[in-house]
Every structure is written in C-alpha cells, then in structure tokens.
Amino acid sequence: MSSEMHFGRRLSIVAAVILWAMATPVLAAPVFDSFGPLPQATFGGSGIPNDAVAISSFEITTPSQSTVSVTLGLTATERFANPPVGNDGAGTFFAGTGANFGGPGDPSSLLGAKWNFGYFIGLTGGTFADIADILAFDLRYDTSPDGLDFGVWDLSASIAALGLGSGSVFEDSQNLLFSFLNTGVPGFITPPASAFDAGAAGTYSFELLATDANGNRVGLSAIDVRTVPEPASALPMLFGILSLAALRRRRKRPGL
After folding, report:
1. 4, 28, 106, 125: which one has the fewest Cβ atoms less than 10 Å from its Cβ?
2. Is the pLDDT of residue 13 over 60?
3. What is the count of structural domains for the chain?
4. pLDDT of residue 27
C-alpha cells in the first residue's frame, strides 16, 4: 500500500471515529471550580501529568473552630508509555480503547486499560484526623460505556485503615481494569454492577465527592473519559481534533 493510500485510510478512520465520538452522549457533566495545572499533585507516582486537572475547593470549620481548606482534584492520563490522553479543556478526556502492560517495553506486570484516572485530596490548615468526624470522601467510578454504573470507593475508610490521619494529602492513580475495582473490597469498595471492558468505546464518568456529617454534599470534582477505538499512531491527531471541536461547541452555547 502506498504512503498516500495509507495516510488517506488513516484520515478516513479518524473521520469516522470523530463522527462516532461527537454523537456519543455525555452522560454526566464534568464539575469543577477550575481546570488546569495542580502542581502539588503527584497522583502517587512520578512523571504523571498534573497539568489538566478538574479542581474544586472549599473550606470547612472543625470542632475546634479552626478553618481547613480542602482541594479535590481528578484527572485522566496515559498509562506508562501509551499514547497521550487528550482533553477539551473543560473536564472531558479522550483516550484509546484496549489494554496492555503499559505499552512499549511492557513496564508493568499488571494488565490495564491504556489510560489511568487519578485523584487528589489536599488539606491546608489541618489534617484528616481534624476533620474525620465532620467530613467524608468518596470516589465514584463508572464502568459502563453507555450508561452510569458506579462503583463507590470509601476513601475516608482507606485513609483511616492506612493510618494516614496525621497527613494532609491523599492521592493515587488507578486503572478501571484492576480487579479490586470490579469485584469490590468489603468495608472499602462497593463494586459496580458490571465489570469494566477496556475494549468498549464509550463515556466513563468519575466523581470525587466530599460530604458533611449529615450526608450533604459540600465538595465535588467530576470528569468524563471518552474512549475511542483508533490505532495508536493516529490518536494524537484524533484527540487534537476532538478537543478543538468540543471547545468550539462550548463557545457556541448561549451565554458562553
């Protein structure tokens, strides 16, 4: 096949996938106060991008009448050497379907989707022990490509079990294909009704939620990850076009 024919075939595939992606409904709208860099976040690793994060912040008063500032952050990133994850600058990310051991060189011993999600909880002016009786954190993650099927991770229970009450940051990067997120962990993770399929194209939603002692929501960061079935070599081009198209659609909305 000539280079011209090969390039034309790639363009036709990209065009078809763009039409599919644009027609796929966004099932849960992203929620954040700002979207951009979160320099203090490492998401539990090194070299994990922190320049495109859905960030929400609020303050809460402790029983001792001190004020604690809380920052919630959510992101999606490529896993190891997989193609970069794109975004529209407003909480929707674009990633490729499929699973591997981290891409070229297989740097991981665990099979995972080609993308990860990362969460960050940061406190200023207090520790997790200071707010343990008045604030709870949950991570809701969606495993259904065409509906909302949430698993729920009780992050407050994890913080307590890990003995991190004296700390002020809790963060990590995880992968929906990891078994514990699909089967659950008693006392910590309530599993979704259906297991995640890394090969299924669709929209996956994530919510980092903070609630007070009465169960009322006081903070929320939410993102969507839209996966597309496209050869890795064309993903950067595809994600750039999708991001630009999404940005133009937002600018056309009344009042924006």
Report:
1. 4
2. no
3. 1
4. 56
